[in-house]
Amino acid sequence: MGSSVDESEDSANRPRIAPLELPEWTPEAFAAMEPMRPPAGSAYDKRKTDRKQQVRRPNNALSVMARHPELARAFLEFNRHLLYFNSLPGRAIELVVLRVAWLRRSEYEWVQHAAAALEAGLTGEEIDRTAADALEGWAPEDALLLRAVDELHHDHGWCDATWNELAEAFDTRQVMDLLFTVGAYDTLAVAFNCFDLPLDPELEGKGFPSA
Predict the structure, then answer these.
(1) Are 130 and 115 in contact (CB under 8 A)?
(2) Which of 8, 122, 157, 173 has its CA 20 to 30 A from that of 90?
(3) How far apart are CA 179 and CA 183, in angstroms?
(4) 81-93 b/e with 16+ CB inside 10 Å = b?
(5) Which one-letter DSSP state was computed for residue 153?
(6) pLDDT tens, position by position, 119-164
(7) Is the distance from CB of 96 to CB of 149 less than 8 angstroms?
(8) 8-state DSSP, 173
(9) Contacts of 19 (CB under 8 A, 6+ apart)
(10) Distance between CA atoms of 188 and 101, rounded to whole angstroms?
(11) What is the Rg, in whole angstroms, of the alpha carbon atoms belonging to the chain?
């Protein structure tokens, strides 16, 4: 029998809500994931196919949501639009999500989207710089997006100057998609933190940039 210290340490290393093992998934849980099926022929479809060839299990985020199929289906329908039919380009989406993940210190979200960001056109150096406070060195549109995320996080809204810059750089639908993308991935980042969600096995050892 282990000591109370051992048991405490073991408990500290376990997620508060553990990902549901695949044999335990209900038919309702599988059905709830249907909205996340990527459009055929898309970059997301290729990414999913490549992952399935390497890892034959759902990621931990979906495996936690499988515990609550009704919530999963409702949220993933929303997430489907933001991920697959967003009016913003993929590069902008991933830039925004990485910044949200950094501000919320959600390592799970950051690591997941660091991999996606490479396919969306961000360089490794740019991905690392999304975890830095300074905005120097970014192209003007990238800096605007990052500043918009920062303001929503710190000030709970956009000042007139930022709003006017966004309205000039993007159309109405893109500005709305930007706002809801930040909100949705902020919700996920907080959830992953509260659940103590561990990194997926194939991503263990990765994390925020050291510098």
Answers:
(1) no
(2) 157
(3) 6
(4) ebbbebbbebbbb
(5) H
(6) 899 999 999 999 998 899 999 999 999 999 999 999 999 999 999 9
(7) yes
(8) H
(9) 60, 63, 64, 66, 197, 198
(10) 9
(11) 18
Three-state SS string across 85-139, please?
Answer: CCCCCHHHHHHHHHHHHHHCCCHHHHHHHHHHHHHHCCCHHHHHHCCCCCCCCCC
How many residues make up the chain in this entry?
211
Q: Is 40 helix (H, G, I), strand (E, B) or coil?
A: coil
Residue 185 burial by CB count (10 A; 0-12/13-18/19+): exposed, middle or buried?
buried
Alpha-carbon torsion angle 146, 151, 152, 155, nearest 10: 170
Rounded to whole angstroms, the Cα distance separating 77 from 84 reads 11
Rounded to an integer, what distance in angstroms lies between the CA atom of residue 11 and that of residue 178? 38
- Could you tell me the pTM of the whole model? 0.88
What does the alpha-carbon distance between residue 173 and residue 82 come to, in Å, rounded to a whole number? 12
